[in-house]
Design goal:
With 203 residues, this protein is an alpha+beta fold. 50% of the residues lie in helices and 9% in strands. The chain folds into two domains: 80 residues, 3-Layer(aba) Sandwich (Glutaredoxin); 102 residues, Glutathione S-transferase Yfyf (Class Pi), Chain A, domain 2.
């Protein structure tokens, strides 16, 4: 597999999941502003959407969109442990959808935007407070979203990592904060974060 990514962007969830899965992958860094690959070449020629992540599968197919990529990686994991089975699978999709549609794009993606007006960012911050207050009550003593670690946890922790960049305090949401810490304490996630943080710092 080949993952097209930008350091500490939402594509970090895919890197975490690939490391958790233990599958071989190559990584291609994308400048999401210029749409150029760090190794040279036009990213738009590969993914006309111009966004990360994108995943080239072993069969040569290109996948885009976090939810599709994360489920694909989960299914490729030899252990089969990154997604619940059978009747529980829709619950994974529910959580992936929640992170994507309720937290990622309309809330923290907006708060991170360099061009969004202050009024829109303030509205997004209010949404974040309400969404995370609800989310904090959903753990109910369980360590991960579906009980066992899954690709949905990698996605949620990736988005929650952005709270530091926008000075959003997770202290009022102790279960969410504990979940983020728990995910990044895992060896695969810790490795993925360390690698991408180093790339981010290097510019």
């Amino acid at each position: 597999m080949e993952l097209y990514f930008a350091p500490l962007a939402c594509s970090l969830a895919s890197r975490i999941s690939l490391y958790e899965a233990g599958v071989d992958a190559r990584f291609h860094r994308v400048n999401t502003t210029t749409k150029q690959l760090a190794e040279g070449g036009d990213y738009l020629a590969i993914n006309s959407k111009g966004q990360v992540p994108a995943l080239r599968t072993d069969s040569g197919e290109l996948l885009t969109e976090n939810n599709a990529i994360l489920e694909y990686i989960a299914d490729a994991a030899p252990s089969g442990s990154l997604a619940p089975k059978g009747a529980a699978r829709p619950r994974l999709r529910e959580w992936l959808s929640f992170v994507s549609s309720e937290l990622h794009t309309p809330v923290f993606g907006l708060m991170l935007s360099a061009t969004a007006p202050a009024e829109a960012k303030a509205h997004a911050r209010g949404l974040a407070e309400r969404k995370l207050a609800w989310l904090d009550g959903q753990f109910d003593g369980t360590p991960y979203l579906t009980g066992e670690f899954s690709v949905a946890d990698a996605y949620l922790a990736t988005v929650m990592n952005w709270t530091q960049a926008v000075q959003f305090d997770l202290a009022p949401y102790p279960n969410v904060a504990a979940h983020r810490a728990r995910v990044f304490d895992r060896p695969a996630a810790g490795r993925a974060f360390a690698e991408e943080f180093a790339l981010y710092r290097a510019g």
